[in-house]
User: What shape does this take?
Amino acid sequence: MRSLAWLSEKGGTGKTTSAINTAVCMARMRKRVLLIDADPQANASLVFLKGEAADPPTLCQVLTNQADAGDTIRATGIAGLDLLPGDVTLADANLSLASEIGRERRLRLAMRGVDDTYDLVIIDTSPQRTLININVLNYVQEVWCPVDPGIFSLAGIVKLQGAVAEVVRYLDNAELRLSGLVLTQARADNLTRDVENQLRATFGTLVCKTAIPASVKVGEAHANFLPVIDYAPRSPGAKAYEALTREILNGKAHRIALGDDGNVASADRPNRRRKRAS
Assistant: This one.
């Protein structure tokens, strides 16, 4: 089983869109996929529940030990794809768990045995550094970070690096890696070009080859409670998510370790260190 989270400490970068569409693409590629909605806004759940809020139990009850994960998972109507829904009560779970023992380990424990049913577990998250997101980081193997063109997204990567490094150092998840950066909302303009050049110069092959273009079809798909690959399968956005999914599944993006300071070097930097040491 492979587990990954779409996470960024900046809002509006395309986390939910990326989680929804890569999950659907993977299911269409005959993978058994579970999508977990760990965002209190629960937009991923709204898409698959056709605009209706999820009835309890949801992820909140799972994290607060009021329900089993297996009893909370439901079908999406898409073959091979299940949903563990979230709702607004996740915001309350952040508060209710704050004083509990083992509060960072609730998701990791709840998923024991359940995750082996799937080839992939994909988690959508909120942009804040919350106790729920720490639970996510303490469970998944990989973090995939969408980056929209702008200086604030670049700053968010630095914060994310630190969060990943702290979880690896202080909690249970030594497997956790920052696995890929995905340029989203890309346009044929100087800003997008400059941000992409800076990303590739800093992070090397950690940056995915596939960029997700800005597309009105994505917004239209959300309004119709559909993934864009179903709403407009021939659109540039849909084609890009299909290509990105293949890139993720084929391991084109490199998983790299973080130092204790949370810094990520470009992919060729470890080789240069070894060369100097020889």
